[in-house]
Amino acid sequence: MRHWFNRQLAGVSLPVVLATLALGAAGGGAAMALHLPLGMLLGALMAVGVASALGARVGGRPLAVPQHWRFALVPVIGVAIGASFTPALVAQAPRWAFSIGALLVFVPLAHVMGYLIFARWGGLARPTAFYAAMPGGLMESLHLGEEAGADIQMLTLLQFLRLILCIVLVPVIFTIGTGHAVGSAAGTAMPGADVTAGPVDWLVMIAAGVVGVIGGKAARLPAHIIVGPILASAAAHMAGLTAAAPPGWTILVTQWVVGTSLGARFAGIRGRTLWLALRLSLAAAAAMLTMGYGAALALHGLVDQPVAALFLAYAPGGISEMSLVALSLQISAVFVSVHHVVRVMIAIAMARFLAGRLLR
Q: What sections of the protein cross the membrane (predicted)?
C-alpha cells in the first residue's frame, strides 16, 4: 500500500503537493468570490503559476503536483460532455460538415502564422518555431520537436502558454461580450445536472469513464483520455442507461486540479526566458483567436450554430479546457469538442506534411 501511494506522488513529497493544492484552492476560491470568468480554473492557475515563477518553495522544494493527477480527472469532463448527446443533436451533425471542413484551411494557416511570429519576430530556431506553432497536439509536438532538435524547454513553454493563454483569454472575451462571468458560480450547468444520480447512475458514469479511457487508448484515439469517455458516455446516455451527468462539484474539483497542475509548470523557469515566451505566445494566441473569430462570423449561417459556439470551436486551446468553457456557457459541448478533436488530428497530420518543406 505504501509503495502504491509513493508511486502516485511520482517522487513529489506529500507536504509539497498539499501546499500546492491549498494555494490553488485559495486562488480559485478568491477568483470565484470576485466572480471572475471560470474562476476555480483560472484562479488556481494564476495563484500557483505566479508563485512558481517567483520561486516559491515548501521545505526547500518547488511547488508541484503529479501531472498524472490532472489526467486522472479529465475523464470527468468527457463523461459530462457525453451526457449532452441527444437524438436531436445527432441529427444536426451533418450540418457541421462546413465548419469541420473549414478546419483544413484554418489549421495550416494558423500554424504558418505562428511559425512566422516565432521564427521571424522571436528569432527562434526553425525546428523550435515550427513545432511550437502547432495549433494542437501538445504531446505530439513535444515528441516530434525533440526528434528534430528543437529547444525542448522553449518548445514546452510556448505550447503550454498557448494553452494557458487561450484558457485565460477566451472566458474573458466571453465575459466582455455577454456581460457576465463564465462559470463563476456553481461551476457549470449541463444536461442531466438536475437529475439526482442514484447508485446505478454513478456506476454507469464511472464505467463510462474507465471503459472510455481504456478503449480510447486501445483504439489510439487522439486525446483518448477525454475522447474515449465522451464516446462511452454518449453511448450510455443514448441507450437510456442513465439520464444523469456528473454534478457541478466534480467539475469544480477538476478545474481546481487542472489549474493547479498547469500553474506548477512554471517552477524553475528563468525570468528572461519566460518573458520572451510570454510575448511570443500572446502574439500568436491573439492572431489565432482573431482568425477563429473571423471564421466564426463567416460560417455561423452555414452550420446553424451561434458565433460564440463556432469561436469556441476554433479557439486553439486544449480539448478538455475549451470543453470546460463550453459546459460553463451552456454552449453545445459536443459541437465544440468534435471540432477540437478534428483540429488536433489535422494539426498533427499537417505538421508531418509541412515539416520537410518549412524546415529545409
A: 34-56, 68-90, 96-118, 160-182, 202-219, 226-245, 251-268, 280-302, 322-355
Which set of grid coordinates corresponds to residue 244?
Answer: 444523469
Work out the angle at residue 276's Cα, subtended by the Cα atoms of residues 271 and 277, and round it to the nearest 5 degrees.
95
Q: Which residue, among 317, 331, 330, 258, has the nearest Cα to 65 in the 3D structure?
A: 258
Q: CA-to-CA distance for 184 and 41, rounded, in angstroms?
A: 10
Q: Please, what is the average pLDDT of the chain?
A: 81
Is the separation of the CB atoms in 16 and 59 below 8 Å? yes
Residue 232, C-beta contacts closer than 8 angstroms, at least 6 positions apart:
78, 79, 82, 207, 208, 209, 211, 212, 215
Size of the chain in residues: 360
- d(CA 285, CA 133) in angstroms, rounded, equals 10
**Burial of residue 353 (number of CB atoms within 10 Å: 0-12, 13-18, 19+):** exposed
Distance, in Å, from the CA atom of 72 to the CA atom of 4, rounded to the nearest integer, reads 16
Answer yes or no: are the C-beta atoms of 82 and 233 closer than 8 Å.
yes
Judge residue 189's burial from the number of C-beta atoms within 10 Å of its C-beta, 0-12 exposed, 13-18 middle, 19 or more buried.
Answer: middle
pLDDT digits (tens, 9 = 90+) for 262-294: 888 777 777 788 888 899 999 999 999 999 989
Is residue 189 within 8 A of residue 312, CB to CB? The reply is: no
Please provide residue 61's backbone torsions phi and psi, each rounded to the nearest 5 degrees.
-115, 145
Between 8-17, 256-265, 281-290, the lowest mean confidence (pLDDT) is in 8-17
Q: Could you read off the pLDDT of 74-94 as tens digits, one per residue?
A: 888 888 888 877 777 777 778
Give the CA distances from residue 2 to residues 10, 15, 218, in Å, rounded to whole numbers and listed in that order.
13, 16, 30
Asked if residue 59 has pLDDT above 90, the reply is: no
- As a whole number of angstroms, the distance between CA 343 and CA 323 comes to 14
29/37 Cα distance (integer angstroms): 12
Cell numbers given for 230: 465522451
Distance between CA atoms of residues 284 and 289, nearest Å: 9
Q: Which residues, 6+ apart, have CB-to-CB distance to 249 below 8 Å? A: 187
- Give me the phi and psi of 15, to 5 degrees please: -60, -35
Whole-number Cα distances in Å, 107 to 90, 242, 326: 25, 37, 21
